[in-house]
Amino acid sequence: MERSINRFALGTMAFLSVAIALHAMRFEAVLMNIWPAVDDGIRHVIERVPLQALTHMLVAPFALLLGPFQFMPRLRSRYPRLHRISGRVYVGACIIAGTGALFTAPYASGGPVAGVGFAILAALWIGTTAWAWRAAVARNLTLHRTLMRYSYAMTFGAVTLRLQIPFFLMGGFHSYPEMSVWLAYTSWIPNVLIVALWSAIRRPRATALARRGMIRIKTKWDARRRASH
């Protein structure tokens, strides 16, 4: 049952991530001065700081697209080299897009309150992802996986932001700049809290499984020692 729920959750996350990532790639048309379904507030930000804004908007979709496949155990075990390569691309995309977002935040269409929220997100996104990469290099895979969950929770903010927009419209907001004052926080903080709750629930079980594994290894080791004598 738990495995089925996990598969469903991962499949849903992957579907939404791919869909939103492909939709976000429309910003590539902006390079040709074509503005397909771009909100006026976002267009104004791009026109003010094109390098920073487009760095974020053109690179971030690749992080969103790659992220779900990093969490699929079968892909990770069958194609470890592909996992490492795509992981490096993911880390690079997060750091580059996060840097662009950090320098775009002061110009957020929702004003200073939205700017602070997006700046905090960008800083945490960069720091957490870089820390996760360092943990992988140090072979601390438990820490690496935990940090990567937090990293992707923030990456997935691109999805939850868009899912929340219809509810804000129904709540009386009329434009993206109006609702971005809230979206700058509600798009990613709940994701991070969910990962924290999930980690807290799973930690005792993971510890128990690790202990069982250590006991099995010790039992096998003792059996070999007795056999050798």
- Give the terminus-to-terminus CA distance: 45 Å
**Major β-sheet annotation:** none
The number of helical runs is: 10
**Poorly predicted regions:** none
Structural class given helices, strands, pairing? Answer: mainly alpha
**C-alpha Rg (nearest Å):** 21 Å
Shape: globular
Count up the domains: 1
Q: What fraction, in percent, of the residue positions are helical? A: over 70%
Q: How do the SSEs run, as a string of H and E?
A: HHHHHHHHHH
The proportion of strand residues reads under 5%
Question: Based on DSSP secondary structure assignment, what is the total number of beta strands?
Answer: 0
The averaged pLDDT comes out at 89
Structure, explained:
The mean pLDDT is 89. The chain has helices at residues 2-24, 40-48, 50-70, 73-78, 80-104, 112-137, 141-155, 157-170, 176-186, 189-228. Helix 1 (2-24) runs antiparallel to helix 3 (50-70) and helix 2 (40-48) crosses helix 3. With 229 residues, it is mainly alpha-helical. It has one domain. The longest helix has 40 residues, at 189-228.
Give descriptors for this structure.
229 residues; mainly alpha; 10 helices; globular
Topology:
Elements: H1 2-24, H2 40-48, H3 50-70, H4 73-78, H5 80-104, H6 112-137, H7 141-155, H8 157-170, H9 176-186, H10 189-228
Short description:
With 229 residues, this protein is mainly α. It contains ten helices and no strands.
